[in-house]
């Protein structure tokens, strides 16, 4: 089977890339070993926010949010984006202010609010005197399955082919093309995009590439709301009690909070040996320990006392693929000697909200040799934060 471009991975990044390439009239195939979306995109909390201290990521989140708002006009399918607004609570006043300043300079609505304003939005929320609250009104969440499927169906309508249940077994660089061997035959293409989530580093290790990617277990728990409570109807980013949450009907989803993900300093962030991709099983999915779930529940109760009797009802803990500076990799692999190979990986726990733009930027790289919609140097393989890791990994 011959295509101009083959995309490995039917997550939100791979399907978005295929959609944008199909719009550019490229002949494109997505190869997915499971179904769309079998990986992280099927397990994501799907929160969409622009709360980032890195101006490039704030911009990419803003442009992606704009796409989510008009998803059905662009694709013909509904991603069910729900705007709830987001409250970020921190005791690191400077860090929060820095993030709000960056967002404002990127034209994103966000402001510091006082306790009374916070309680107008979330009446039962406690705010201590040493804590500060930021409000991002345009944040919310979407349906991740509908998003990935929407991108894939829209790509198909434009002529792309989506091969589900098709596992890539090996990839081989030929003189001017790629040969992709799968469990159901061989694919030839001029350009190859790898957006295989946590499996990307292992797949590319066949080519002698050592990607600066680490794996982090990312716990998620669902709690039943106590009857008659209505707290936390917005996205909550509670860096004091170390959880984020979003409402899910009669349940509330809580997940792990890492300040480096959005507003913390990553310069001295040291990733341990056992988190290197080469030490981990990319398909690992664990369970959340009772102690961790209890810590989330205590955090939720500290912020919303009326939620103190919320009961855990389900949990899971897949890996996310992170980089040393918690920013994605969106680049071609010429620095590894493969100019017709393109990488979209290391999405560092924020790839869902960025997926509309990640796909567009990757498609532009393939089509024009550069990302035209915005500067992507913050996501290049040659950025400073990744250099040491590439030599050591
Ligand atoms: C628990 C959790 C919560 C999260 N919450 C958020 C959030 O609230 N907001 C946010 O923005 N981001 C969040 N993220 C991160 C976000 O989900 C990811 O960044 C995003 O889904 C990455 O998409 P992807 O397409 O790169 O990878 P994936 O969705 O993992 O897709 C990769 C695909 O490649 C396929 N594949 C792998 N190997 C092969 C092979 N050999 N052959 C064929 N196919 C292959 C896999 O089956 C998979 O479907 C969260 C992640 C997790 C795990």
From TrEMBL:
InterPro entries recorded for this chain?
FAD-dep_OxRdtase, FAD/NAD-bd_sf, MTOX
Using the record's annotation, list all stretches that form the FAD dependent oxidoreductase domain.
5-365
Q: Give me the segments passing through the membrane.
A: none
Q: Which SUPFAM superfamilies match?
A: FAD/NAD(P)-binding domain
Q: Tell me which Gene3D superfamilies the record gives.
A: D-Amino Acid Oxidase, subunit A, domain 2, FAD/NAD(P)-binding domain
Q: Which UniProt keywords apply?
A: FAD, Flavoprotein, Oxidoreductase
The cofactors it requires, by name, are:
FAD
- An example Pfam family from this entry, by short name, is DAO
GO molecular function annotations of the record: flavin adenine dinucleotide binding; sarcosine oxidase activity
Name the UniProt record assigns to this protein: FAD-binding oxidoreductase
